[in-house]
User: Fold this.
Amino acid sequence: MTLTPLSPAPTAPLDLVHGRIDLTHGAGGRATAQLLDTLFKPAFANEWLAQGNDQALFSVPPGRLVMSTDAHVVAPLFFPGGDIGSLAVHGTINDVAMSGARPLHLAASFILEEGLPLADLARIVASLAQAARDAGVAVVTGDTKVVERGKGDGVFITTTGIGVVPDGLLISGDQARPGDAILINGTLGDHGIAILSQRAHLGFETVLQSDSAALHGLVADMIAAVPEIHCLRDPTRGGLATTLNELAHQSGVGMRIHEAAIPLQPAVIAACELLGLDPLYSANEGKLVAICPAAQAETLLATMRRHPLGTQAAIIGEVVADPLHFVQLRTRFGGERLLDWLTGEQLPRIC
Amino acid sequence: MKYVTEFRDQHLAHQLAQTIAAEVDPSRSYRLMEFCGGHTHAIFRYGVQQLMPPNLRFVHGPGCPVCVLPMARLDQALALLHEYDVTLCTYGDLLRVPASGRQTLLKAKAAGADVRMIYSTQDVLQIARTEPHRQIVFLAIGFETTTPPTAVLLEQARALQLKNLSVLCNHVLTPPALRAILTPSLEHAMPLDGILGPSHVSTIIGTAPYECVPRDFHVPVVIAGFEPLDVMQAALMLVRQLNAGRCVVENQYRRAVSAAGNLRARELMARVFVIRSSFEWRGLGFLPDSVLALAADYADFDAERRFPVSVITAPEPSGCDCPAILRGLKEPTQCRLFGSACTPDHPIGACMVSSEGACAAYWTHRAYLAPTAAAET
Assistant:
């Protein structure tokens, strides 16, 4: 009998067609190693991951570092325009990029629920890896854990990103000043309504696509054209209305928004009419709010419109002095209303 | 969006506003009650009140289904969850409405109860068919608008002989509520001059059920759509009736409402439901013949029979002026809880929960109601 060296080599290949996650995949033994070697490492392949350590070692370029982390939970896991994998990349990259930073690296941590089809996991991992490659960032470290059936929702993904901010930039939520212009890079509410229409099986004839996208390329162009940008923020959960209230509160200012200037897709308007929802409180995953001095607004707008993720960019309002920090909306109808923080969760009205 | 944006046209609105301003009699006031929460929502969302002359005021009516549901009925639904471990399905609006002790369906769900938000009664049918081992209770709520879909569900359940589906029926009727509001009482210091009648409800019941209002109470009614131009046109029609001394039912919402309403829906409702002799409304008290119950043929699907719970009577929260606000006797800002203990984030009264409730509408638009008061807070 010939003895071979001990290795984590699996006894049978992973069944990516019919297989499912079970508790052994999280036990840290051969099954865990097999899952990592078969599914994760080839998808994310890069020199830092190849170091094979529990941490990634890398040198950083000069400048200030930013770091952000984001937990991603979404049902359904796959939706028109993306999935939880691509979303986990875009969400964190965008949070990093809203400081004006160039994203460098990502860490990704997966919580898998017992019973998750391996085919689904493979799709999600491939999508996450592709989104990272498209964005020019590497997933340099990560972790997986398995929880018992019923204790997760298929898969939860937490990603952490770091990036470097060029010297001289000061982009922060407290920098909005009265007189500044408020811009948005495109149509609002697409992600939230796309997810909702899938979740509720509403059966709309038009399939709404999530706007999930990495915005750092757009941000780089914007900063190159207008380094004086005061604030950038991605209006994710709570939508545009909530983000504007956050910025108004943080900067100690008020805002006046023009409803007629806000870009909206007809299908989103229709879905919101039917359900009694407001697209301004609906989530976005590929949108940013930019606030800059009024004198640079047209330059910034033109720059945004030249980028594929900003073709429908618009100036939607202005920052005003207001000790109450109200965000006020001039409606299409000619009236005024307060655009308040989102209360609870948006719930469809009865009639 | 076609057939919607046309009814939000800014230029037409200004023309209408000018016509109304020119036609109102400056020597009198016009207190017009919009019956529905949908009207209230439109009036606030589009700033319609600001476009009206100062002597024309909208008074907010009780036509918000979640606002008029008494706490006792929510307590009953919560008791079903606790005592029988049922799956309770209902519309999203209802999830945050406070029951006794500030309990809500949303909190019960967080504590482990099986509460599901549905968009359509067909979702309930689907759940009942795919989960035969669970008892599914549909907490049915709404005026005549949402009643036919519940009737359809009950017919389907009977045809399919579903043993795990039942309905906790809270379908209320509009005409008895209108009568209750108009019945003179000592409280009524300021009578109403006109009623903007329900829009969606009237697509079902038609215009005929409102004839009693001008006849018995000498108050004109104009059935009004839910878009801002609908509300303004209906206000103008009421002003013209009042100025001319006329008092009839008119229909502004002709693109959707006919005199007879939706005959098929009415037949269906008559087959599936009977009128219950008495029912408590939040704010209006016990009103006779004001709510629907399941007809004898459908009694097997009645959640109240299938899952008896002891009769619950819950007092309204102390200090809450929702009852007076629902009757148009008080403005939300006159309630001492408004904006302090009671906000949309922590509602005490039901009028603060739904975006159709008068209190929530006032809170959301507080910046424009009393700019000086708002500036002082």
Q: What stands out?
A: The CA atoms of residues 221 and 282 of chain B lie 24 Å apart.
